[in-house]
Amino acid sequence: MPVQTGDTAPDFSLPAGPGPDRVSLSDFRGERPVVLLFYPFAYSSTCTEELCAIGDDWSAWSSLDAQILGLSIDSPFVVQKFRKDLGLDFPLLSDFNKEAATAYDVLYDEFFGSRGVAKRSAFVVDREGVVRYAWVTEDAGVVPDFAEIRGVLDAL
Known about the structure:
The protein is α/β, with parallel strands linked by helices. The chain has helices at 45-56, 58-62, 76-86, 99-103, 146-155, and strands at residues 13-15, 22-24, 34-38, 67-72, 92-94, 121-125, 131-136.
């Protein structure tokens, strides 16, 4: 069962590109809430739409003082290039070994012939590491309700 509202968010440490630097969920503990956006594949149309929706409205998101993190099973090279190509102001992380997606239980058994692809899902984690919002869909063509996510962040 995927991580639910009220659960302690599983920690992870993932690269935002090639090299030794990693981003951990615990890096933000006590400092700011975090929005985790798992997406299936970089450069797919709906994933691009989802991440660009946040990037295009960055001033509204940044005013919430929350850290946005995009996560996919793409390689560190791909997430770095995807972020650069989209001009995003927030990190995209490579969950290439599927550690975070497994911990959050958001992996498709089969997705267009591929196994172990992250389901489109969104989680809001508060400053103490508790999940305050959890949304997981089986339909990869649907994006999260960003107004709902911003409402949760406003309430924190």
